[in-house]
User: Fold these one by one.
Assistant:
Number 1:
Amino acid sequence: MAGSKKSAESTGNRPATSSDVARLANVSQSTVSRVFSDTCKLSDETRKRVLEAAKQLGYRPNKIARSLVSNRTNIIGIIVMNNESPFYATLTNLMITACRKFGFCSMVIRQTPGEQGIDAVTRALDYRVDGIVVTAIEDSESASEICRQSSVPLVLLNRYIAGAGVDSVCCDNLEAGSLAAQYLLDKGHRSIACLMGDAAASTTRDRLAGLRSKAEERNVSIDWVEYGSYSYESGREMCRKLLADGKRPDAIFCSGDIIAFGAMDVLRYELGLRVPEDISVMGFDDTAETAWASYNLTTMRQPYEELVETACQLLVRRIEGKGSGVVRSLHACRLVERGSVQSLQPE
Amino acid sequence: MAGSKKSAESTGNRPATSSDVARLANVSQSTVSRVFSDTCKLSDETRKRVLEAAKQLGYRPNKIARSLVSNRTNIIGIIVMNNESPFYATLTNLMITACRKFGFCSMVIRQTPGEQGIDAVTRALDYRVDGIVVTAIEDSESASEICRQSSVPLVLLNRYIAGAGVDSVCCDNLEAGSLAAQYLLDKGHRSIACLMGDAAASTTRDRLAGLRSKAEERNVSIDWVEYGSYSYESGREMCRKLLADGKRPDAIFCSGDIIAFGAMDVLRYELGLRVPEDISVMGFDDTAETAWASYNLTTMRQPYEELVETACQLLVRRIEGKGSGVVRSLHACRLVERGSVQSLQPE
DNA sequence: ACGGTTTGTGCATACGAATGCATTATAAAA
DNA sequence: TTTTATAATGCATTCGTATGCACAAACCGT
């Protein structure tokens, strides 16, 4: 008497198929399919019967089978670096939510250590994802090439490749760097040190370039620049190295908040300096932790929602074939003033 | 003369299929399939010819089609709450990596606001994922029920449902709570307040229960307990509320690090108290931020890698049909002593 | 040289849903 | 009532891969 308790007629524990439903509802498999994709006119009577049968069997369309014939998986591949920073976590989370909003599921692929970025992309392509978002892998260029070969749309989020015909969505790092410089200069800072993340990333380079050009415009030269990576530990190391030579800049610009956290902690707890009284620190990204009272970090806010929304929209438009030329979408950052930068100006 | 530049013979920009390869290599489609699944003996000569043709066409097996016939997607669904805490971010990231190690891709599904947890699970099931890991959704019970109906293995990570026949992997929250109590008591603390996360979660309840039982064993009663959620803001609010009545406990136990961060910041920057000199704070999880010098939080470390590895292994074993009875896997936590708890004992 | 075994390959079909086309039932028009 | 248009449904095929079965070739021992 097993299984008689369930209200659904068992199909032997294998999920019900459209044919099972068809049989029960006394219609053809095509009709069932049409009820669930509702592409076509159907009598209310039939629709009702089918839906009832479906409910009884617990039927749900098999998206895998559907994908095979329609050549559309409704999956977006999200490729992320093997990076633990809160910034990427936030970006990834928002991206998943955005994809969902557009009706897509997310296959998240993390580049495993030792793996080429292109392999991560290939893994996604094997599942015939409809589109790919890359938030920072090393060899974006080859990734973009292999996507073009498979004619799968690709969007770079928070990265940019000059010249390559790839869509990208970034904040305007040049302008943001410039704004940061302007802010620090306006506050009276003249000797500005920079603790930068990965030197190879376009974001890193642009932020510094923007900062530098604005500073030079005001006849201030940026001489103290350290490179490392976007991590707390790297922030600490760069900060130690910077101040080891006895250098005492007015302010330290960090190209990522997490670098700033490391730097602040070294300043306060290893060097006994006060932030911002003795030395000012500025971050970049506006991750959640910046607002925490211990840091209270003045930073440039990246417009997360806007970036992610745009990337997703762009990707979806491409997926639907509504592509035009290569898009490079740039978004303004906004300065969020908290308490880590001191004014050296007499008011 | 378009397309003649590519070395690969173009198949009209549609990804090459096994039939395309078969045609080029002068073998049947079956043979191509066999080369790529290598289930069967094949002459070296044939294999070489096929692989060459495949390379020339840029052929990679279509995992969607493969899934359809083999009834195996090699995808694991990872269901996560709409939660921004670093703890879940870490857990999710590690889970993705672990799945990959076992040869699975990850479909990450975030419960969207207003959505039932069961709907998130259903979305995964629609893609016929081979297994599902749930790291905290509200209605785990119904989720488990619908997985059973589809006979898709399910593992709860960091959650536990008493009685329900669901596999789960947790740290031993009872014991961990007890260890925390023991530590605080040994340090001489007698009035211990508790700032807890979501009251409905098994983790929250067990941590408190463990703490309480150990305390009572030593004739200390735990009278000050606040409930909230696992977030920085909630930590702040609970802390304010706790101390508003003029209460001054020796120590505050927080059921999550992020709660502790909020609490510490209120203590230090709103109430002007020193941690640990005036009041001790203890956390739970050992997220990355605990080691940051600003917090330097003494906490209970969850064995992340072990938890994730176990969950994944368990799931994979179930997927391969090697299931036995219901498994409840418990893992010991370890106290990580940093600088946020003061000793009240004369040494 | 012959029956028997092994090895390598092809043929045909299945997986579950979507869809162009044919067919039937129904309604509207003449 | 007959004709034509229209709406509703079924039939057959397709997507790309895997696999049971049949078959051919090669090898083996006697």
Note: Residues 17-19, 29-30, 32-34, 36-37, 39-40, 61-70 of chain B lie near DNA strand D (CB under 10 Å from a C1').
Number 2:
Amino acid sequence: MESTIKDIKRETGLALSTISKYLNGGNVRPENKKKIDDAVRKLDYHPNEMARGLITKKTRTIGFLLYDISGTFAGILTHHVGTLLRQRGYGMIICDSSNDKSVEEQNVKFLADKKVDGLLVVPVSSDDTFLEPIKKANIPIVTIDRKITGTQLDCVTIDNEEAAKNAVEYLIERGHERIAAIYSEEYTGKQRRDGYRKAMRSAGITISGEYEYHERLHSVSLGYNGMQKFLKLPKKSQPTAIFMSNYEVALGVVMAINEAGISCPEDISLVGFDELTLTLVMKPKMTLMVQPMESIANEAVRILMSKLQNENSAALQRVLLYASLNEGDSVRDLRKR
Amino acid sequence: MESTIKDIKRETGLALSTISKYLNGGNVRPENKKKIDDAVRKLDYHPNEMARGLITKKTRTIGFLLYDISGTFAGILTHHVGTLLRQRGYGMIICDSSNDKSVEEQNVKFLADKKVDGLLVVPVSSDDTFLEPIKKANIPIVTIDRKITGTQLDCVTIDNEEAAKNAVEYLIERGHERIAAIYSEEYTGKQRRDGYRKAMRSAGITISGEYEYHERLHSVSLGYNGMQKFLKLPKKSQPTAIFMSNYEVALGVVMAINEAGISCPEDISLVGFDELTLTLVMKPKMTLMVQPMESIANEAVRILMSKLQNENSAALQRVLLYASLNEGDSVRDLRKR
DNA sequence: GAAATAAAGCGAAACGTTTCTGCTTTTAAT
DNA sequence: ATTAAAAGCAGAAACGTTTCGCTTTATTTC
């Protein structure tokens, strides 16, 4: 049915090895080049990746293991990563762990069985034991967005702590002191919480326990619940500003304040994370720490490709990117007046 | 390095064919069963999928081709589909077409070269010519969410027209006549527009051209822009209710009305589509046509699997699911008062 | 124009499975 | 105990490539 390299052989009269060599970028005589090209076109020949892979031990497939694909950050990241990989001829097998460590563990085994050439991972677990099957097979791994403990892995992250610190300092500079924070207990959530605390501490502001709200995962309801809680505090001790550690959280917060009839920035100032779909059209324009999504995808794919091409490039590559503050109108300057 | 079936042979003293048979579910003597099991465990043997695939001509991989993965609907669908496929031992190669027909065309070729066993597709194009490479290879295809013209394909869709019609009828029943609609020019957008028009027509309400707003793609800004436009109409002729054809559109509309200081349902009634992250926490709870996301994924995977197992099940399977109206508090009953 | 060097071509072996064919052993039935 | 049927087994071929070592052809240099 499908034509094979043997059909090309029959058509051209050349040896298998010659044809194969040319097809893989080798040199052949111009006349043979033409013969092969013509035959390929005529027979609509496509090399069988499996036969090829059997020898080269390469599937030209990358595993993309991520905590959960349904969120907006994950969706956009996946979009970029997938496109970059495809441009390089690599397929991407996605495994979504539903934010569950045991699912994640199974997924690693699954991807190891699928013999992916490399693994990109935005992990659920915070230590590296679950990666054992992939490590044992000596498959390169690059983690994205979240670091994990254990033996050091190549990774691409942003400086979350610094970003959060900058965001909160931006609030402090404008006279805010009663600043609350909403974050998750995931890696990025905790990092951003630390940045928040750091900024507060170095400004000499003590953080009231009431001003921190957290749940296990980043979600719209996390933001919504957190804001609800803050609004229940006595008027006098309500925060004047909220630091929100993620896009979905910001959605929840905005819902809560709209519902309560409170307006931003008059009554409450907001600083968030990630300029994604909704934050692009929101009014007032929100002040945000913007992550360089495309660069994150780019770097991750670049590192992985370098490992794939250069087996010897064993040097650890840990790229740290920075989020930039995108000033909007969601923060009131309390000094003026 | 990796252990092969030959190592199992050496370890057990059995023939390759016997081992292979057992590993593929065949019967062997109990003693041999044990021998093989032990050897597999001891050597940590995992069959080489490529060698296997070379013979069976199966990759145990499904292509998932979709218009764009960054949206919420796509993310959630992908989550479900991926999980179902993985449970059945299938990997899923995702190709995101960036809402671009020519990218989509390339992706089909890419997936054909990857020799996927089946294809699930939420297409950009509205006709089937781009699927040629997959069809030629005789690979089963199931379209999801959007139908395409050309030779009939298996598909899973919801009755968008009916759903939209029901949503708009719900508004009409509550005394609304000045009902506006915001939709995209994509398949689902147009279907839902048709449902809107149908409901209006059969209620004998003529639709003012000013009451329809559309852009090429569903997006937050589509909703935002649409609502902005309606708000610019003279007070007297402003719509009392909006039918929004998609989740992102609803976000945009809500942003626009919040910004304009208009409240729902007092000043404006809203009916939307899809109960996703944000609509889950919004107040007032939005009245929504809810698509059975999990069933959509389930049916699509079920159909595809049936085609894979039963080559002869050539019968066309076109599943039509229904969205259900989930009543919230976003619609004002104009009859009371 | 011959010798030396480089480039291109060739055939066979290999990759790790499954499957086919014919043979042997076990089980069941008489 | 004998026979027939069923089940299990071994060896070999096949799947469609790449790669290795060797031979042939082309190119350069004196």
Note: The radius of gyration of chain A is 26 Å.
